[in-house]
Amino acid sequence: MINSRKFAQSSAPGPKRVLPGMVVKPGPPGLGPFDSVRPLQARLGNQAMGRLLQSGILMRKIGIGHAADSMAPSVQRELRRRPPGREQEPPALSPEQIQDAIVYNNGRYSETHTRIIQDIVGTPQTGRFDENTIHAIVEWQADFRMTDMDGMVGMRTLRTIVLEMMRGGYSRGRIVWMIVDGHNMPTTGLASLTYDPALAGSNASTSGPIPGDSTVVIGPDAFAQGYEGLVHTIRHELEHVQQRRSGMANQNLREFLAEGIEIMSVGMHWEGLAGFMDDAGRCLQFWDRLSTAEQQANWGRFTEIRTRVQQRFDRARAADQTTHQAVIDDFNARNRP
User: Is 252 within 8 Å of 289 (Cβ atoms)?
Assistant: First the structure.
């Protein structure tokens, strides 16, 4: 994780977040409510229109069904990011697939974060995932051209949700916790996790007794890295929480292992190559500071990390390989202690 990458943020308002085509204008006097959506049906097709009608969202939009007025604000939220637009229509989920998505999402996201997701995808903010919300997530996934249009807010869908939060006025502390929930990061031993705009000189800090519970603070530099760098920073610090709770006193060992978590990127998107190689260089620095006994005990982990670095290097462009050749050479120069 490095601090040179910035988010490109736009102050221009995005489109209204209704489901695709759901801004329905009243028809001429004398037309029934469904007549006003016939042009939409022609554009989306019968299958997509059927899903919108089945979900009840479009029915509320044109004033049919219950609670139309009370639900309107959550359906009318404006997006700050403009989705690229769908390349294909999403599949019609089976009842079993819908239930699987409900179970997955409810098991991962708190009530507060569920309401945020519902706010963003344009469904009533009930705090629990339901069939309507799953349909809306599938439509969202189609808008962002995802291959996994399954209604589950997994890593790829979460990324688009968090980027919308960043532009939509949500607090950075709430964004941090949404990432923790969405990536199912470990929180055992965590006393508190907060955002501090005054934290300077580092992406984040972790403090507390060893052994014991730890306090984690995330700073502006973590956000300046971009989404992937932010996720890696949070996961790095939460690894320190686990280490400190277990009584691991050696800071060099803690940092070597935490950098290794970032390099392996299990359950996370890759960072950009520059950030990845920056992590790899620091990981090697902390490795060199370990005693011979500590290196012997952690040699297996070192080889796993080295293999992953080599794999990422091999997939890089020739120009990037030239830039980062020294890191690979340094890793390959290390022999079993």
Answer: yes
Asked whether 228 and 271 are in contact (CB, 8 A), the reply is: yes
Question: What φ, ψ does residue 37 adopt, rounded to 5°?
Answer: -105, 5
Helix, strand or coil, per DSSP, at residue 271 = coil
* Residue whose pair of structure tokens reads 């479009």 in the numeric block: 58
DSSP structure class, residue 104: H
Of 322 and 58, more confident: 322
3-state secondary structure of 207: strand
Q: What is the pLDDT of residue 64?
A: 31
Helix (H, G, I), strand (E, B) or coil at 206: strand
**Phi and psi dihedrals of 230, rounded to 5?**
-65, -45
Taking phi over 0 as left and psi of -120 to 50 as alpha, with beta for the rest, 25 belongs to beta
Instruction: Count the Cβ atoms, other than its own, within 10 Å of residue 23.
Output: 12
Rounded Cα–Cα distance for residues 21 and 49 (Å): 10
Alpha helices in the chain, H assignment, sequence order: 38-44, 46-55, 57-61, 68-75, 95-108, 111-121, 131-143, 155-167, 172-182, 220-224, 227-245, 251-264, 273-288, 292-297, 299-315, 318-332
Identify whether 84 is preceded by a cis peptide bond (ω within 30 of 0): no
Q: pTM of the entire structure?
A: 0.77
Q: Map out the domains of the chain as residue ranges.
A: 33-167, 183-249, 252-337
- Cα distance between residue 233 and residue 180, in whole Å: 11
d(C-alpha 75, C-alpha 321), whole Å: 48
